[in-house]
Write a structure and sequence with these properties.
The complex is a heterodimer of chains A (about 110) and B (about 120). Chain A is mostly beta strands. Chain A contains no helices and 9 strands. In chain A, strands 1, 3, 4, 7, 8 and 9 form a 6-stranded mixed sheet that branches. In chain A, strand 5 and strand 6 form a beta hairpin. Chain A is globular, with a radius of gyration of 13 Å. Chain B has about 120 residues and is mostly beta strands. Chain B has no helices and 11 strands. In chain B, the strands form 2 sheets. In chain B, strands 2, 4, 5, 6, 9, 10 and 11 form a 7-stranded mixed sheet that branches. Chain B has a 4-stranded antiparallel sheet with strand order 1-3-8-7, with no helix packed on it. The relative contact order of chain B is 0.31. The chains are: A mainly beta (about 110), B mainly beta (about 120). Chains A and B meet through strand 3, strand 7 and strand 8 of A and strand 5 and strand 10 of B.
């Protein structure tokens, strides 16, 4: 089965830049998406189509793509950004959706 | 605004069945694909199934194929998930999600409900 690989955890101090990567072969051909999930809450999309930001998402959230890796960058991290972040894409057929294992972002 | 409200969760014995519902409002339900996504306690997200806007196609994760059925009633703006032959591994919060419709042949989870907890236990 198809897999997306994320680091389990990332830690940064307030005001620094956090980068979370997600790797998978199909990302070379399929879009990547990112979701933020805070404890006890439903996920929220923060990046779609590799680099685009939904309305209402702060500009400090950005996405990039290179080959088989997509990256979520949070510039000027704030305490409220502490959450789990999940990448998502599909397999090469586009039919089956897959999530990465999630990355816990800790703001020190 | 988009609102998705799941219901039907609860405690169920292994081998039994349960049907979840998701009431949608704030958008034209009949023009969007819909998904179910689940999250086991303390674990990550797992996509479960998708149904096209008109109900003409459904796709399932391998872990639920043959046991779960996704369906919809566009006249009632409601999405369903029929779950049969439940096992402990199906214990999770089940979220319904509206497809993001961001690009052709590309699925995403644009809006999420708050989820309903299903516990499979004897």
């Amino acid at each position: 089965s198809y897999e997306l690989t994320q680091p389990p955890s990332v830690s940064v101090s307030p005001g620094q830049t956090a980068r979370i990567t997600c790797s998978g072969d199909a990302l070379a051909k399929k879009y990547g998406f990112w979701y933020q999930q805070k404890p006890g809450q439903a996920p929220v999309m923060v990046i779609f189509k590799d680099t685009e930001r939904p309305s209402g998402i702060p500009e400090r959230f950005s996405g990039s793509s290179s080959g088989t890796t997509v990256t979520l960058t949070i510039s000027g991290v704030q305490a409220e950004d502490e959450a789990d972040y999940y990448c998502h894409s599909s397999d090469n057929s586009g039919t089956y959706q897959v999530f990465g294992g999630g990355t816990k972002l800790t703001v020190l | 605004q988009v609102q998705l409200v799941e219901s039907g969760g609860g405690v169920v014995q292994p081998g039994r069945s349960l049907r979840l519902s998701c009431a949608a409002s704030g958008f034209t339900f009949s023009t969007y694909g819909m998904h179910w996504v689940r999250q086991a306690p303390g674990k990550g997200l797992e996509w479960v199934a998708i149904i096209w806007f008109d109900g003409s196609n459904q796709y399932y994760a391998d872990s639920v194929k043959g046991r779960f059925t996704i369906s919809r009633d566009n006249s009632k703006n409601t999405l369903y998930l029929q779950m049969n032959s439940l096992t402990a591994d199906d214990t999770a919060v089940y979220y319904c999600a509206k497809d993001g419709k961001v690009a052709p042949e590309t699925y995403s989870f644009g809006n999420w409900g708050q989820g309903t907890l299903v516990t499979v236990s004897s």
